[in-house]
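Shapes recur. One chain:

:::
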Amino acid sequence: MKKIVLAIGGMTCSACSNGLEKYLNKQDGIKSASVNLVMNNASIEYDNSKLTIDDLNSFVKKAGFESLGIDTFDKEQKKNSMKKYKLIVMTIITIITFYISMSHMIGLPSIPTLNMERNPMNYGISLFILSLLSIVLGFHIIKNGTKNLIHNTPNMDTLVTIGVIASFSYSIYGIIKIINGNVSYVHNLYFDSVTMVLFFIEIGKFVENNNKNKTKEALQKLVTITPKNATIIKNEKEVEVTIDEIKKGDIVICKPGEKVAVDGVVIDGATHMDESFITGESVPAKKEKDSNVVAGSINYDGTIKYKAEKIGRNSTVSEIVKMVSEATNTKAPIARIADKISGYFVPAIIMISIISFIIWLLITKDFAFSVNIFVSILVVACPCSLGLATPLAIVIASGISSQKGILIKTSEALENAHKIKNIVFDKTGTLTNGTLSISKIYTYSSESEEEVLKKTASIEKKSEHPIAWAITNYAIDNNIEIEEVKDFRAIPGYGVYAKIKDEEFYIGNKKLMKENKINTINDKDVTELTEKGNSILFVAKNNELVALIGVKDTLRDNIKQTIKKLKENNINVIMLTGDNEKTANHIASEIGIDRVIANVKPKEKAEKIKDLQKEGLVMMCGDGINDSISLVTADVGVSISNGTDIAIDSANVILMNSNIEKINDLIYISYKTIKNIKQNLFWAFFYNLLMIPIACGLLNKIGILLNPMIASLTMTLSSLTVVANALRLRRI
């Protein structure tokens, strides 16, 4: 199976995207297809042993749309410029049309040669020419509407097309009547409606497209974040190459002020880098030998050499673009409701308009009045706002989340995040940093704490044990000088022995002390360290205990505030860990978690998640590897990441900077997004419920009646209302 995202041309409303999606999902060899109206693309998972990209392009064409190839998320500046110029021309035509047809009604001086009463023929012909020009400029609307009707996927353009053709055809009939001497038909010409309807539809589409393009900005910024050129070492010389020429394994140089060209690992040098575009954190990240660097990061203060690891489509940036795009292509449950309604809506409106036309024709015997009703219903009921209500909000929210270092892989996760009842945390590597560090030191000699650490670190530097790394890292971070060590010897299962000058040291566990008959009378200190979850390092010099060093996994920054805020939002917080109950309870009490499930194996974690799901929706937060089963089982799986290895399939949300605080951001964004979608759907439905009866002529007796021009204006305003409301999310 293979997955690609194709850029699609010719989609104008939710009926288009729904129709294409249904058609693609029926094709043999396509496992799943999801079409996104806002992004104008289709995410397709297909069997590449059966189908090629050409086959997929062919399917899109047969469905009545245009495949523009693999979506690169680039801006279509030339295309937008052409649309702008076309809209300017249509505006001029519309103003002229409005003046000719309406000037006498609003007290403006009319053009004598085009006066409808004195020169009905000139009046009719001039409006015919202007409306014909509008049809030419807006022909893509009529083309799409006709095409979708033929493919049995009627959409917004179909409604407009039927209305425009009906108005234009009847008006031509009126011109023929005028030519034959029946000048009364000058009052039954609807050429101005044709022009006005196409103009308002076009301006609505233009504004919508501009706003939809704004929602792609996060992706477009990521696509262009990497530099075009880089310097590599080739034949022991520095050579400047384009980013496409870099191969995996090449040694790349990055100097202060430059951007990292591709993902890689530092092999020489040290610096600080701005990774805010990917982590959401403004604090520069320290980079030294063996550190990972991400394409697009800005080098602040040092020159480094790094080995290229991930290039092209495998890079972190490409993975993020792909994930954000896929998130916007998945269907949230709330989106499926709107899609289902849209699928029935257009055919229903066509039927309502036909029935209304027949009823009014039978009642009034007035063909022109009945045509007015028919066209007004078709135009006013366009489901454009309904189609934009959900996907526009989801795309904006996904873009905002990615900028904050939160990658949401499915829109269902975005919808469910604010509805969770229980949030479950793994302990090691999630609530804690996953690395050991010194938490407490007790000294029992005249030597200072720093002196004890200096000698301990000097010896432990030669050891490969994780506890030894904690001591060594502490010495490095605190610039503690390392002394020369002699006669170093590791004692498996116990600790180490070594000499510094003439002093003998045993460093290890309690068994090592007993083995060498070293007195450990400080049981109170040992008990205190043990109860707080420490591993204890006994340090003896010349057969006397000189220090106890407590080493444990440290808590993540701001974890207490994060847990507190979750509880304030009435979310139950649970620790689920394979660690022993005593250690788990100590850490839980320290950070404010009341409920602990300990001694649980990875396979058993999923069962615990299922039990919790009986109480409501569950979010699981883990490291994405040991917790993969439970992450998949949970309603929302959140995985933390170091910002470079983001291809974690088990979770549907990834925190790029491993900052657990972002969970509260995720819940807040979810809440605001779903609230926004509900507002959009309300206004879209309310508008149609309000305007369709008026368009049907139900208020005609009290003098309220829509004509096609007003109908097209109100339809455009309804779409713009939804777009404007969705764009408010950008302020989160």
